[in-house]
Design goal:
Radius of gyration: 18 Å
CATH class of the largest domain: Alpha Beta
CATH superfamily of the largest domain: Vaccinia Virus protein VP39
Largest sheet: 7 strands, mixed
Strand order of the largest sheet: 3-2-1-4-5-11-10
GO molecular function, one term: methyltransferase activity
Number of domains: 2
Organism: Clostridium aciditolerans
Distance between the termini: 43 Å
Shape: globular
Keywords: Methyltransferase, Transferase
Protein name: Class I SAM-dependent methyltransferase
Length: 247
């Protein structure tokens, strides 16, 4: 089973009610102001259907959006291509990023970093970002916390049901990897179409992430609790990192 194929076409319907993208983007731009980041070139990694991209694009001269899922990029392009948006959409693996240019701001939001399961791939990902970052640029990304993946999601089962979409979400936790098996039933006329997807996320401890960041050549500027000005707690579910090239 592949992830973010048919799911891409109902992603916004299911996810958008839980995420305030405007507030996230506002916090990101506030940090850019505080750190005096030049608003010329912006790169959104694992952009999905372009929700964060769309909130930030008007603040930069040039915007690039990268995702590994062609279906997610199709949704993003359909949604954002108009309104005078100047966005270059690229289908690429973020651990093998090769855009031949550098950026003032790079973001990777909504726990996409957790989808990278191996240390070697995580190092390649961070190295790729470092190579695409201008000297005074910043990289902002978030992770599902170790607590959330192991204690909240863990080996649990969830379900969702409305008039148009029903899904069953079963999780299996082993060796800090949460395998998520999702079965969807999407209404089409009088019938429901079934499709299945599997997603896997790794539960990283902060110490693991921060050791690799420093090894690659990043300096950690700040950490946030879910894009808010709050300290990280033991039960924090989303941890946000702001990093830059080490001086």
């Amino acid at each position: 089973m592949e992830c973010y194929k048919e799911f891409a076409h109902i992603y916004d319907e299911l996810i958008n009610s839980d995420i305030n993208y405007k507030e996230w983007a506002s916090q990101i731009l506030k940090i850019c102001d505080e750190l005096k980041v030049n608003r010329k070139d912006y790169l959104d990694l694992a952009c999905g259907t372009g929700n964060i991209t769309g909130e930030i694009v008007s603040e930069f001269n040039n915007t690039w959006a990268v995702d590994l899922s062609y279906d997610m990029l199709t949704e993003a392009e359909t949604k954002l291509r108009g309104n005078r948006n100047n966005i270059k959409f690229v289908c690429q693996d973020i651990t093998e990023l090769n855009l031949n240019r550098k950026f003032d701001l790079v973001t990777c939001c909504l726990d996409s970093t957790n989808y990278i399961l191996e240390d070697s791939s995580l190092k390649e990902y961070f190295s790729s970002v470092l190579n695409h970052l201008k000297d005074e640029g910043i990289f902002i990304f978030d992770i599902n916390s170790y607590y959330k993946l192991t204690e909240v999601l863990g080996n649990n089962v969830y379900n969702y049901d409305d008039e148009n979409v029903t899904y069953i979400w079963q999780n299996s936790l082993e060796d800090d990897i949460v395998d998520m098996y999702l079965t969807f039933f999407v209404k089409q006329g009088e019938l429901y179409k079934r499709f299945d997807e599997q997603h896997s996320e790794r539960a990283y401890r902060c110490e693991e992430i921060e050791t690799i960041l420093k090894e690659i050549g990043f300096e950690i500027v700040m950490k946030m609790n879910n894009y808010e000005d709050r300290d990280i707690e033991d039960i924090t579910e989303r941890i946000v990192y702001v990093v830059k090239k080490a001086g």
